Amino acid sequence: MARDDNQTYIGTRPTIEIDEQSYPMLLRNLRSLRMTEALGGLSSIEITYTDWIDAPDGTRGFGAMGDDHPMRIGRPVLVGMGPEEDPIEIFRGIITAVESEIEDGRPPVITLFAEDLLFPLRQTRRSFLYEAKTPKQVCEEIAGFHNLSVEVRDGLDEPARDWLQMGQSDLAFLRAILGKLDADLQMVENTLQIGPIADQERTEVELASPGNLIRARARADIATQSGEIAVSAMDIVGGDKVEASVTSADSPGPGEGADGKAYLDAHFAAYRTQHRSQGPMEQGGVDAYAAAAFRQQAREFVRIEGTASGNTQMRVGSFAIISGMNPAFINQYLVVEANHWFDANAGYFVDFTALGAFFGEQP
């Protein structure tokens, strides 16, 4: 997961730069914005303005017009929250679409759509064989194709094998590799950060009700759990069947208490086996995939969806400490989706989804 600095700001007004310039007239016409980020990278943002201005020369008309207007596809955009002189960045990307909308009785609006610096990886499809490479080396090679700075943390140095990319986008291929290893990728400013999910917090945020936790809905669901994950595959080099079986999760993420397997062992022993068959894979790959799959499903035992007061620390990879709910759900959770949104009338908020492996003290 990505790592940020420890800055935080709870504010009500964004700062927006297009092509490294701020435009006060545009900011005055700002109606709303929504920045979305989730596991798998490729954050996006929508920025909506009232598309009508009163110019200093007395003329009136549509604001987004003319060849020199900043609202153009391909322009870089930077969005921050906080004091205008020192905003805290929440998005950096490229304008990929522009939309105009009119409706009787309402002022016209124009919306900018932008995606972060993983956009070229989404757009680039290739067929390529990465021979005898570790996941870390594959990530570094693909980042090099796009001249991206990359940080790959520990935990992705095995297995070393051949990886075949067949007509996939670079982003889809990286997601497929990292998904099998319970790892993730995120852009942080100009750097692509890659590493195991939940191995360390990006930031830590306390959310309490009453207080900055405005709304939350939490659910612990045993149907998401299995007591064992067994993986089998064919080792095409040795010609033998290879197998791995995992019955516990190492480092499933933040929190403490009874996990899903404890509830299965106590009440649902008949439903404790799950098998996943894979394509060609050596023993090391099977072992790594089985362990990653068990961590992923353990982490999905408890899901919380909520809304908090606007806070720049609420990012994918953050550890959220939840309080003010039913005591069984008071715990620490991993944020896997964060939607930062601003409305000119309502203010700044964050919709989030967080996961946890633990529910209550005992099953």
- Beta content: 35-45%
| Helix content bin | 10-25%
Question: What is the overall silhouette?
Answer: globular
Compute the CA-based radius of gyration: 23 Å
Kindly state the number of beta strands. Answer: 23
Mean pLDDT score: 90
N to C succession of SSEs:
EEHEEEEEEEHEHEEHEEEEEEHEHEEEE
Q: Provide a count of the helices.
A: 6
Largest beta sheet, briefly? 13 strands, mixed
What gap, in angstroms, lies between the N and C termini? 30 Å
Name the structural class: alpha+beta
Low-confidence blocks of residues: none
Description:
It comes from Parerythrobacter jejuensis. This is Phage late control D family protein. This protein is an alpha+beta fold. Among the domains are: 14-116, no CATH class; 120-196, Phage tail protein beta-alpha-beta fold; 226-297, no CATH class. It is 16% helix and 44% strand. The protein contains six helices and 23 strands. The chain has helices spanning 24-28, 119-123, 135-145, 170-180, 260-267, 283-299, and strands spanning 14-18, 21-22, 30-38, 44-50, 53-54, 60-61, 76-81, 88-103, 106-116, 125-133, 149-152, 161-169, 183-188, 191-196, 204-208, 213-220, 229-235, 240-246, 274-277, 302-309, 319-323, 331-343, 347-356. The strands form five sheets. Strands 1, 2, 3, 4, 7, 8, 9, 15, 16, 20, 21, 22 and 23 form a 13-stranded mixed β-sheet that branches. A three-stranded mixed β-sheet has the order 11-14-13, with helices on one face. α3 runs antiparallel to α4 (170-180). The chain is globular, with a radius of gyration of 23 Å. It starts with 13 loop residues before the first strand and ends in a 7-residue tail after the last strand. The mean pLDDT is 90.
